[in-house]
Amino acid sequence: MSLVLGIDTATDVRVGLARDGVVVAREVVEDRRAHAEQLLPLVRAALADAGHTVADLTAIAVGVGPGPFTGLRVGVAAARTLAEALGLGVRGACSLDVVALDWAGRPDAPAGEFAVVADARRKEVYWARYAADGSRVAGPFVTAPAEVPELPLCGPGATLTGREAAGPDALDAGLLAASTDRLPDAGLVPLYLRRPDAEVPTARKSTLLQPRLAMMGNR
Amino acid sequence: MSGPLILGIESSCDETGIGIVRGHELLANEVASSVEEHVRFGGVVPEVASRAHLQALVPTLRRACETADIDLSEVDAIAVTAGPGLMGALVVGLTAAKALAVALDKPLYGLNHLVGHVAVDLLDHGPLPQPCAALLVSGGHTSLLGVNDITGDIVELGATIDDAAGEAYDKVARLLGLPYPGGPVIDKAAADGDPHAIAFPRGLTAQKDLARHRFDYSFSGLKTAVSRWVETRRRDGLDVPVADVAASFQEAVCDVLTAKAVDACEHLGTTDILLGGGVAANSRLRALLEERTAAAGITLRRPRPALCTDNGAMMAVLGAEVVTAGLRPSSLDIGANSGLPVSTVLV
Ligand SMILES: [Zn+2]
């Protein structure tokens, strides 16, 4: 028997389980600010609901984004640490790829290329472009919503473009767990796409100017 | 065999620490630091630190188990820093700790980082006389504590109201053209300088301040005073005596730190004080505190330097105390708390 745990925290908190390739659990906490709090209780709940314990797991799959960094790291840290402690293999998938694979397998799948879009905050979106079979042809990118190409759109951030959206609007962690062999290996480093916000200090602010101006004002 | 086998995880700032203890016996203390990645920014960049924690976690965990020569399955409980610290950084360690607790089916203890700085001395000097005072000085914190019971009764007597002492060192180092982190380089530069060359201000020591801030610290005014002094010299075309500035600045910092620490002991009626945190390695702070505590008949305890900086062993040994005291484990749904008060030892 194979029992794969799927974890994704690129948007909210999602956990899935696939036994011999068949999804047996899908759990979601629709909270985008409680990844650290909710993920591990959700993993435990998913296993219990499916009648399993962690000892039954045979592999772990994790969504590596793109997504807001702090939440995204929770899923990756959990997956890596669980795998280490349980002596299991762990594989990362681009979270947008999972949504694309989902849509490509549905009856309402687009006939041609499409894009998957997620919220990147700061008035930007993460997106990638896919062929009709769900394989990624470009991306992932982080851009203004207006730069997303005129294609059929799905995903948790599709409506941020102001255009019509169809297909799945969230990642299915059960599908992530069941499809590890069909999803390209994205490694285990989150797909940050942005550099850390940090400024290299340049000219120092003068501390002389301020007190002198203040003294003048006092007169 | 004495005491529980505890694995401790620390990720509140820029060090990823995994420590393993059995009771008060240190078995492993592995630390991966991202300090090099922050040098060009002149201070810790939270997102850079958080990314580094994620990368360092599993390799550091692996090293700690090898050093301690244990298998993870032998561990009795997982202890982890739940706060205070940088939110994005804390979350990585907390998540890893929860994952270990679930994978190993062992209890989780979310603990206070500051109390860990006190507890770590148990590894070097055994049981702590209680009550005692503790002075914690680092890049992230400057606190004066009264420790009645390390597992649950700690009062914050005072803390910095602006910059941490270590931060002031970083800023003054940058002003003098010295590299980050500022602590060790200022300490070194000060060795050749005259600590009485320049009379820099001692924050919150004036009579009017003592009423409300008897045990609090402030280093922002000192930093500005150093900056103005240096800029005035430069404006007037005079060269800056780096050693004298460093020594005089350091003297001002250490004078206030130690004077208030001794006052705190008298206030608590204790003759024991513990010095912890990264700045505890500072030579002048150590010397001055030794001198003043000795004069006041106070016994000074200080863990070895490798245990003063942030590490996992401090959380592990605090975890061992909490487990031994029979306190309940943390819930699996606890969050990280960047402003966790020191009065909350266990979340
Ligand atoms: Zn610390």
What features would you highlight for this structure?
A: about 220 residues, alpha/beta, Nucleotidyltransferase, domain 5, 2 domains, four-stranded mixed sheet, disordered C terminus, B: about 350 residues, 10 strands, binds zinc ion
Characterization of the model:
The complex is a heterodimer of chains A (219) and B (347). Helices cover 27% and strands 24% of the residues of chain A. A 5-stranded mixed sheet of chain A has the order 3-2-1-4-5. Chain A is α/β, with parallel strands linked by helices. Chain A has 2 domains: 100 residues, Nucleotidyltransferase, domain 5, CATH 3.30.420.40; 65 residues. In chain B, helix 6 runs antiparallel to helix 10. The two termini of chain B are 28 Å apart. At the A-B interface, helix 1 and helix 2 of A face helix 2, helix 3 and helix 9 of B. The structure holds zinc ion (ZN). The site of zinc ion (ZN) has 7 residues of chain B, from helix 4.
| Main interface: chain pair and counts | A-B, 38 and 43 residues
> H/E element string of chain A?
EEEHEHEHEEEEHH
What is the CA-based Rg of chain A, rounded? 21 Å
Order of helices and strands of chain B: EEEHHEHEHHEEEHHHHHEHEHH
Distance between the first and last residues' Cα of chain A: 85 Å
Strand count of chain A:
9
> Helix share of residues of chain A?
25-40%
Q: What CATH architecture of the largest domain in chain A do you see?
A: 2-Layer Sandwich
Number of helices of chain B: 13
Largest sheet of chain B: 5 strands, mixed
Strand order of the largest sheet of chain B: 3-2-1-4-5
Oligomer: heterodimer
Strand tally of chain B: 10
Order of strands in the sheet with most strands of chain A: 3-2-1-4-5
Shape of chain A: globular
CATH superfamily of the largest domain in chain A: ATPase, nucleotide binding domain
Question: Into how many domains do the coordinates of chain A divide?
Answer: 2
Strand-residue proportion of chain A? 15-25%
Bound molecules: zinc ion
